[in-house]
């Protein structure tokens, strides 16, 4: 009986995962066409509105902006973006740092 | 005043969760507050993963410390049962990372982890005086919740000098050595400075691993007298050694990007500890000979004992990138210095080394084959001459603070993806002084952007035999994983693996009556959510 309940619970968990999968909108990380203009939100934390970025999408957007290069950003701004990317990667490392809690 | 109001508003909205970049065009300096969270839950069915953080080790019965788990598994691989005790447990952890800054150069980072095993804690404290509670890292999931189970895992200030590529990190921060975590890999409090250009990277730092002022109470004595201004043990008439005890780690390392593909690195680490055996009994690892022969307990062998030592690690490493995602790397570390031996009651010279090599080779557009090799020197006669066993940093409880996760094993070494507990056949690449030769080969395949799979085979053998084992072959791990990314931020994984124990464990089951321990296995469902 115990085993049946455990198995049923696991099925429900998977059901929930698949359901979430069906309902989830297209990935927000899907590559946007990089417009040749500065992203003030990413660069200076200006005009962000109510945006809340996941860490992964922040890293993606920083890479996207750095790729625009000197056509769009000054070298000082590029360095700032690179530092922000380094910081975001540091956070990712910290979050996933230790697989145990000792 | 106006600015203060703005800042308060920032503070109010930052609690929403996820990353929130708040600011205003009216301010010269925008306040950035970020929260990021990594959540991991694991449901585990196993005869080995027991909710504890102990290794199989070399002690009697394969392991001596398995009593701290959810299941008291001290018999699970024993001769008494002959078959293993299966168990099922669930554990989870949320790592909450906050970083805040008012300008681009200065940042504060704090990370707190909250974790528990389902069913651990609260009312178990006084249960038949059995002290069934975990040591804090796993409590909070018992009926009623209600445990203090938050831990600080990072708290540091990150400062970049303006116009110069120099950076300082001061405080509790993660550190992993340049050798895949085989020397030191954990969070530690210290100061790390780095200089980084496109070609060069140079890092110098210091970590204080442990510090305490020793006094009579901590020496284990219940009473004292005072003579000539010193605390004296009334039993022995000897003065207590009431001085500061410290345990420090120093690092100096650099990397040079010779070409876009080739990176060369060199490093020098020093681990200096004057922690004395007052805190660490120093009896060392004991082991009986197999087949119930007359006890030949090896005492005084203290591979895990970290007191009173000065060890240095000088190493070089190289990495070569090729194609789309291909990497080959290799390294060599020479370990030297002095450490105390409690049988000889003298310091021994240490002369040891480790060497590693690994490769990742893309196979087609969606596959990666990977392989890794490691050799660490061992010592079969640690109480004679110099010590030749390679050893990374251990804590004052005697447990290794190195984590070798890169081979991606589930049981042989620490898993890459975990939450709370951590049980391995080998807790470190030193294997308590035997040294190891180990190799791993695996293949990862992405079936789609969401569905991926991994298979791994690993083997390990002991290089020396200080515990008088019947053989040197530790075992073969067979493991695999299927991962499904059901949201951009969330993945569910099914993992399974077993270790076929080799001749190294032959006849080492609990009573030393000649039976063999059972092969460990694990089956896990892992849910990861990161944003």
Structural description of this entry:
The complex is a heterodimer of chains A (102) and B (531). Chain A has 102 residues and is mainly alpha-helical. Chain A has a domain at 28-95. Helices cover 61% and strands 2% of the residues of chain A. In chain B, the strands form two sheets. Chain B has an 18-stranded antiparallel beta barrel. Chain B folds into two domains: 1-30, no CATH class; 47-83 and 156-523, Porin, CATH 2.40.160. Helices cover 2% and strands 46% of the residues of chain B. Chain B is built from one helix and 21 strands. Classes of the chains: A mainly alpha (102), B mainly beta (531).
Say how many strands of chain B there are. Answer: 21
Bin the strand percentage of chain B: over 45%
Q: H/E series of chain B, N to C?
A: HEEEEEEEEEEEEEEEEEEEEE
The oligomeric state is heterodimer
Beta-strand content bin of chain A? under 5%
The shape of chain B is globular
Keywords:
heterodimer; A: 102 residues; 4 helices; B: 531 residues; mainly beta; 18-stranded antiparallel β-barrel; globular
Which secondary structure elements does this structure contain, and how are they paired or packed?
The complex is a heterodimer of chains A (102) and B (531).
Chain A: H1 2-23, H2 40-44, E1 52-53, H3 55-68, H4 75-95
Chain B: H1 2-13, E1 19-20, E2 32-46, E3 87-101, E4 106-117, E5 150-160, E6 166-176, E7 185-196, E8 200-213, E9 225-227, E10 230-232, E11 244-257, E12 262-273, E13 309-322, E14 326-341, E15 346-363, E16 367-376, E17 436-446, E18 451-462, E19 473-487, E20 490-501, E21 521-530
Antiparallel strand pairs in B: 1-2, 2-3, 2-21, 3-4, 4-5, 5-6, 6-7, 7-8, 8-11, 9-10, 11-12, 12-13, 13-14, 14-15, 15-16, 16-17, 17-18, 18-19, 19-20, 20-21
